[in-house]
From TrEMBL:
NCBIfam families: TIGR01244 family sulfur transferase. It comes from the Bacteria. InterPro entries: BLH_phosphatase-like, Prot-tyrosine_phosphatase-like. Residues 8-109 form the Beta-lactamase hydrolase-like protein phosphatase-like domain. It comes from Advenella mandrilli. Gene3D superfamilies: Protein tyrosine phosphatase superfamily. The lineage of its organism: Bacteria, Pseudomonadati, Pseudomonadota, Betaproteobacteria, Burkholderiales. This is TIGR01244 family phosphatase.
Amino acid sequence: MSTPFTPLSDTVAVAPQLSASDMAAVKAAGFNSVIINRPDLEGGDTQPLSADIIKAGQDAGLTVVYQPVVSGAMTQENVNQFHEYLETLPAPILAFCRSGTRCTHLYNAAKQTP
C-alpha cells in the first residue's frame, strides 16, 4: 500500500484518501474492514468514488462501509454511527478521509461514547 496509515489503537488505524487499487494492499496489510468517511466528490471529479472502492474492497475480502462525514461539520449522529462500526465491523479497521484527521476526530469522539 503506497498510502501510509496511522494506528490509533491495536484495532483501528486511519489513512488519507485511498483508491480502489489500494484495497488488495489494505487486506495484505492485515486489515479486515474499511470505513470511508470522505463524501464522494468532496475533492472534485478526480477523487475516487466510494462505489468503486467498496467493490474493490469486497473483491479483496474486506468489509467496506461508506459513512460520509462533512469536514468541519461532524454531528453526534456521525459519532454514534462510527462508534457502532468500531463495535461491529471485523477488526482491524482502517478508516480514511482526505487526510485522516476527520477519522481521528471521529475515533476520539466515539471512544467517549458509552
